[in-house]
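Subject: Sanity check before I submit

Could someone independently write out the structure tokens for this chain? I want to compare against mine line by line before I put it in a report. The sequence has 242 residues.
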Amino acid sequence: MEGEIHIMKLWMIGHSTVLIETGGKRLLTDPYFGLWGNLGYSRLRPPARTRQELEDVDVVLVSHNHFDHVDREFLRRLPHGVPVLAPSASAFITRLKGGRNVVGMRSWQKWVLADIAITALPARHVTFTIGYLIEAEGKCIYFAGDTFFGDFMEKIGHQFRLDIALMPVTTYRVPMTMGEQGALQAVRTLSPNKVIPIHLGITPRLPLLRTGQTPEGFRERVRQAGLPTEVVILREGESYVA
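---
Independent answer below. Compare away.
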């Protein structure tokens, strides 16, 4: 409706699963609702919402196909018409894991839903992966998925003025994504107004692989570096209005 005003609201469901409500639509990132984890990692806290409560989303953004980013049961519960965006190189795996309306995305490819533009962005991981830029309500949200710091972030930071960056801050050894130091480098390069740390919902079952790194430690590093970026820490069930 012309003249209707929407707000952008982000809900931390858990780990890298974030519900973004904007433009009258609901976007869900990297759905993971498992309570146990796997043989190597345990889940720290249950997700804030169930699969059933989020079946009515309008689009799902999958960064890659690791167990803690793609929920087979959730994808199978989605109505057939709900698009599931995923890396084009591994879209067939997303389909094998339950996705039906899977849209393969290449880096810098744009996909539009109503007044929301979603652009796939480069990422660097141990498997095929992408990030996403969500442009809506005059704001830019960067969902990094699982990624290490990389030179591609210079182009992202130069091309987009990021209001919020959802970035991983790994808290264990043998990391699959950025830890505190890598995330700090990313903040320097991307210059987002705000960062919401993600990928905090699992921990190694082997205590020797755990570290003392925390999202609070990352926030302190950003402060000590004198960077203007604000670090907003959301626990499961908490929300932030952009």
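---
OP: Matches mine. For the report I'm noting this point. The longest strand covers residues 9-14.
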